[in-house]
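Support reply, case 0932

Customer input (verbatim):
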Amino acid sequence: MSGLYLTRGLFPEEFLRPTVEFILNVQQPSGEIPWFESGYTDPWDHIEAAMGLTIGGEHEAAVRAYKWLADAQLDDGSWWASYRGDEIDNSKRRETNFVAYIATGVWHHYLVTEDRDFLRALWPAVESAIGFVLSLQTEHGEIHWAVDGDGKAKCDALVTGCSSIYKSLECAMNIALTLGEEKPHWKEARTGLGQALRFKPERFDRTWESKARYSMDWFYPVLAGVLPQAEGHARLMARWDEFIETGLGCRCVSDEPWATVAESCELVMALLAAGDHARAVEVYSWLHQWRAADGSYWTGYQWVEDLLWPDEKPTWTAGAILLAADALTHHTAASELFTRVKLLDVESQDSQKRIN
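Our regenerated output:
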């Protein structure tokens, strides 16, 4: 199917219900959400799928997903790169943007449910995770992308990873303020990270080939709110023809004929953040031709060879489909999480307490 055009107030609940059910069917009794049946689970994509459950109204299942993550957290606040049930699947590294993302997922769930008990219960995991991530921030503001199996920092930074962390720090700060926790150094860390992303390109991709050919490096600073709206729009337009295949979606890599559904969904939200609603609606309308009969979505399409590749329908792609639909329709109270920067302040929180 293609041509699904969404607008504010018209969330296609019946159409997307099978997509929610797909995530539920893959979720394990423990709460873990693997990529697919018999696949592994990584913390970032687990959270992406959990946010899809929240949007779909499956709040208890989403809480189980976050509880599984909190239970698997290491003493230093981090998680290994991937898991299979109770077993560690990849103990070679722990990635900072994976670790920080719990703040985004937890804040997203709270915005939708207003469940303060949930927020308080997950606070120790969020606090510990952010502590681990910020221990890897340099004096220049960027954050090392990972530590190895022995806990030694892999001393380089990724634009996409640091942009994701920038959004997670916004969410972490809002959680802290909502719970009355004092974390002034988180604000300083976020400011420094933003300065590095905007003005210090030399601090990224220092020890490997530039990742600029990847679409996520192109749109993530816009998606995460690193750039003001006008600058974000200019950034997207500057390389639009390089990454967009009309009628298919966003390329994962600029020099490969491969459009991927999850990246296209994230681009939809980046376009909304940049104030380009028309393009956001159009790109999202292309993606449902990659939908399977069970409501899941294929990872992507390679148009030179005319094949769906890889032969995978990940839960996190389903989560991205739901996040983009929510952003376009304003279906939940978290619909603007990835399209606006919204930092709470003490005065607004005090006013809210007085009202409540």
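We compared this against your earlier run and they match. Two observations from our side: The chain has one domain: 13-355. The chain is about 50% helix and 10% strand. Please reopen the case if you see a mismatch on your end.
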